[in-house]
Amino acid sequence: MRMYDLILKKRQGNVLTKDEIDWMIREYTDGRIPDYQMSAMMMAICFQGLDKEETYELTMAMAQSGEMLDLSGIKGIKVDKHSTGGVGDKTSLALTPIVASLGIPVAKMSGRGLGHTGGTIDKLESIPGFSTQLTDEQFEEQVNSIGVSIMGQTKNLAPADKLLYALRDVTATVDQISLIASSIMSKKLAAGADAILLDVKTGSGAFMKEKSEAVKLAQEMVDIGKSAGRKMTAVITNMDEPLGMAVGNILEVKEAIDTLKGNGPGDFTELVETLASHMLMLGGVAEKFDDAVSMVRTTIRDGKALAKFKQFVAAQGGDTRYIDHPELFEQAHVIEEIRSEQEGFVEHINAQEIGICSLILGGGRETKDSQIDPSVGLVFSKKVADPVKKGDLLATIYGNEEEKVRQAVKHFKENFHIAKDQLEKPQMIKQVLS
Fold it and tell me: Per the database record, which ranges form the Pyrimidine nucleoside phosphorylase C-terminal domain (predicted)?
């Protein structure tokens, strides 16, 4: 085979075979196909697309390019969860102990944040002592022992995807739905779960700005998972404003703890309850959604979910005193309140730009080597459709440098809009595909 022939074939709109895709991914991963030829292939795919079979074969070739985790040693149906990312998305911190407390084994690999979106690993590592560096054996043993473990992604998990994503990132070929779907699902399939729940965000703070595009992406991922023999559910959820009230690593950990105590913000609580319920159904613990919701609310009310979170934190070296007493967490030195200069109703909060506020403060990474300040961020007092009076507190900014706080305040004000007329509260759950 020659890469030249495959590029020409795809450029002309023809379908690549399984053997051709397997050969291409293997040769590129091993360094025998140069970047410039793979760039040409990615561009041809952007223009011509991939059919359902091509997308599946590309996903499997990338998944099998490295380590395929074998979770058969873990008892029960393993249900994984993936979010396409957003601002204030601390969902895994509250979700995983809830479902683990109800008998669903959670063996999850998570990543770090880059840009305006936060990473689960960064949030967990803001708990003093918490380690996400586990061996495969430790990972499996912990899930069998307490029902939940979260570790950082291994270097050898879908290495072809890492190479391809880095290439797509600099060649303007990121936003092709089949390539996005295969990138996400290659890692999920390599991670070894029996069932996968997808939280696909849509809105100003999400990669997929329009709901129609989010639905297309979700459907492609569900189709890939089913073709690979996995049970699949995708939930399309709102990211037109930040999730919950807190943005920033320690601030989000505190909000997750509040939620496990039954005191979380309404939108975040609704999301966690919905996702947890679908995980219970995927794992065979509940047959009906309403029954699953009831189970989720009971395990929170009885304190079992919070107890599971503490057990999970302790198992990975974290200091559980911070869970019992969140006031022990490090707090930023510079605290600035933002108050309304007018009366009306919150009209729009640009989620992506609010994420940039946290980035300005030092709460996110501009490059992979950037150091994160876990104590900085912001906490909202008002969300979309809330009434506002002149002088009302809109948000509180937490930072450690006066100049960065000043810049973040200015950026916040430019992206938080108040109008005379009240809007409807945003709908958190847009659609469910299964």
Answer: 345-419
β 334-339/393-399 pair status: antiparallel
Count of other CB atoms within 10 angstroms of residue 394: 22
Residue type, 241: E
Q: Which residues are catalytic?
A: 82, 161, 168, 183, 187
Q: Which CATH architecture has domain 79-324?
A: 3-Layer(aba) Sandwich (3.40)
Q: Tell me how far the alpha carbon of residue 288 is from its chain's centroid.
A: 26
Distance between CA atoms of 182 and 15, rounded to whole angstroms?
16
CB within 8 Å of 113: residues ≥ 6 apart = 119, 122, 364, 365, 372
pLDDT tens digit at each of 434 positions of the chain: 999 999 999 999 999 999 999 999 999 999 999 999 999 999 999 999 999 999 999 999 999 999 898 898 998 999 999 998 889 999 999 999 999 999 999 998 887 655 555 688 889 999 999 999 888 889 999 999 999 999 887 768 899 998 998 899 889 998 899 999 999 999 999 999 999 999 999 998 888 899 999 999 999 999 999 999 999 999 999 999 999 999 999 999 999 999 999 999 999 999 999 999 999 999 999 999 999 999 999 999 999 999 999 999 999 999 999 999 999 999 999 999 999 999 999 999 999 899 999 999 998 766 656 678 999 999 999 999 999 999 999 999 999 999 999 999 999 999 999 999 988 999 999 999 98
Q: In CATH, what class is 331-419?
A: alpha beta
Token digits of residue 28: 């590129």
- Fold (CATH) for 3-49: 1.20.970
Who contacts 184 (Cβ-Cβ below 8 Å, separation ≥6)?
Answer: 82, 84, 198, 221
Contact in structure between 74 and 148 (CB atoms under 8 Å): no
DSSP assignment string, 37-98? HHHHHHHHHHHH---HHHHHHHHHHHHTTS-----TTS-S--EEEEE---TT--HHHHHHHH
Domain boundaries, given as residue ranges, for the chain? 3-49, 79-324, 331-419
Pairing of strands 246-247, 377-380: antiparallel
For residue 360 the two structure tokens come to 């300005």
pTM: 0.93
Distance between CA atoms of 166 and 162, rounded to whole angstroms? 6
